[in-house]
Structures are given as C-alpha cells and as structure tokens.
Amino acid sequence: MRTKAIRVIGAAAAVLLAATACGGRGESGDSVAQGDCKGQQTVGITDTSIKLGGVYPLSGPASAFGEIPKGARAYFDYLNAEQGGINGRTVEYLVRDDGYQPPKTVEEVRRLAEQDQVFAIFPTLGTSTSSAVWDYLNQRQVPQVFVLGGATKWGSDTDHPWTIGWQPSYRAEGRAFAEYVKKEKPNATVAVLFQNDDFGKDLRDSFTEAVKGSGVSVVAEQSYEVTDPTVDPQLRNLANANADVLLNFSTPKFASQALAGDARNPDWNPLHIVSMVANSVSVLKPVGFENVQGVVSGAFTKDAADPGLAEDPAIKLYKEKLGKYAPGADPTNNYTLIGWAAADSFRKTLEAAKCPTREGLRDAARSLSGISIDTLLPGITLKTGKGDAFPMEAVQIQRFQNDRWSHVGAVIDTGK
Fold this sequence. Notes:
Radius of gyration: 21 Å
Shape: globular
Strand order of the largest sheet: 1-3-2-4
Order of helices and strands: EEHEHEHEHEHEHEHEHEHEHHHEEEEE
C-alpha cells in the first residue's frame, strides 16, 4: 500500500521567541529543556515550530474517516497563517495512511516517531489500530494524544500515561443509548450488530450493563469482521428475532449497509440506533434520506449542516477558514468538523501546558479544567483530573428528521 503524507506547513509569523525558564529547545538540536523544565523531552518542538504526526485510514474499509485530517489540517493552516501558530510555533502536520490495518499503523507510527521525530502523535484513529501502538509509544514516552475512538481503556487504563482519548467513551455512549431506550421503550427487546473488536464489544457491553434490572433486554447479537464484504447475513439473522430496537454498532461502511438492509425489509421496523462514529450525513445519504427517517444516534459536536447554526460564530469561522485552507473539503461532513474540533482541543491543551515539552503535553491533557471548544455542543467541555482521564463524558441524543439531525432532550452527562 502506498503511503500518503500530507505536509501542513503554514506561513506563520516568523517571530523568534526569547527562551523562557520553561522554554523548549532552541535551534541547536538539543532534545531536552532547560530551566524549570530541565530534562524534559523537546523532540519535535523548538521555539518557533512544532511537528505533529497523525495516522488515519485514508484508504480501506474505514476510509470515510479520511475527512477528519482535512479539518485538522485546515485548522493548523489557519493558526499558522493568521494566529502565529501555537504560542508562536508554526505547526508542521504529517499525516499517514494505515488503511485501518494495525500492522500498517505500527509501521507508520514508528516512521513518525523515529524518522520524522514528531513531538506527538495526534492522533491515531480506531481501537485496534491505536491499541497496536500504545505500548510502543508509552515505552518511548511519545504522547499519543486524543485518540479518535471511544474505547473505555483510553481513559481507565493506568499503565499507559502517555495515551489519552478525546471523544465521549463507548461506555458513555452505550449508557446514553440505554437511558434513551429505557425512557422511550421501557419494555423493549434489543438486537445488536457489532464490530468484533474492542469498539463494538465496548458499546455492546456498556449498553447491556446499563439496562440491567430494567424491562429492556438484549435478545439477539451478531458480530462482523472488518474484512467482511457485507453485513447482510448478520442483519437477516437479527431480523428473525423481530426485536423492537436495533443497535448498529458499526463503522461507516458497515453501518450504511445495515441501514440499507433495514430499509429493504418491510417486515421489521425496529428503532434503529447508530453509533456516533458512523452518524455522519455522508453515511446516511447513500441509503436515501427517506429510508433513515427516525434513526437515532448521539452527538457531541455542533452540526455544521444545521441551518439554525448558520450565524453561530464558531460554525461561521469553521466554514470560512475551511473554505480558505481546504477548499475541496465538505464543511457539512461531520468528520471534517471533528478534525477541526480535535485540533482546536490540541492547541488549547498545549497552550495550557506548564512546559512546552512532551511531559508538559502529557500532564496538561490529564489536568484539563473545563476547557471550552466552540464547535462542541453547549454544556460539553474538556475536563480531566486525578483518576479521570475522560476529556468528554456527555452525549446528546439526536434523531434524523428530513435531511438533518435534531436534538432530543437534554445532554446526558454519564460522568455524574
């Protein structure tokens, strides 16, 4: 598979900052800080630049996520050209393609860490792919910041301090769906389609645990592999249970197949719930909007396709700068917006670091004090602390109506 690299080097203000007591390394090539931050790693960061590396499935079965780095790249370009970078440091962003294959993730992450000497891996995407490299990155003490994936272990594990997630965990998402089903269909039977890895199992298990003791019961389960060509056989088997609710815990390609399969079956009309990783309008549109009316999912970002947010300052800025720095990107694609929001989160986390070092970034990511990200939904902020490495723990339930998502009820904070 041919490796793709996207280099993002903004035309930043060439301002050489005087070294502070906690300053990063200068141009001499030293790889450790001096002053109050003495001995901490400054690989990939200088007084005027910072080099980051991201690994995404630009190809393969999860290539829909390839829109995410377009949003992140546009944000960094915007920072470089108009904001002087991050604390005066221009951002060089290297993006690699792993095709959603863990062995390829290992190859590309090693390349970024050892050859390109990046300051941090921001981010890796996916559960199995990110899991394939977290031992390596933690052994090398390279920050693996804001993994794009909701595996509970990104926030609950204590043996990998250099790794942290970003979005609401699958535990939080599963609990939010459970609360919704218990309220809307208190005696529902449930069928589950899930990807056979930590992603799918995490969602399934968190939902099942959260409905224990209620009238809701899981009556059928079917798993699939990412190498499967289709989930049609699994969906037919689930239809035999004639459950009231279908949980579609799939990545975009397979979620779209399941939505289409559900629409083709007139004899089964379950409440169809789609995981947040696959709820972009770009996933629903090929199925036909008329076939996905009433589908339910969750959200944590604003919806750039919502005409009601046309004058929202954060959405206006996002659309304007995306059009300028990534003119081929679709501003209404939720994955593009996620990339923008994640990059904004990285910026604010590094700005909050006491030291512009790898250790400083690691510590800042684990001590976020309610940081606001303007493209997130109101009421959702980034907050971590001792014993809590989950930056976001709130989910907004939404229902698809006409050609867009509409919010249902209030934000569900599963961290309380």
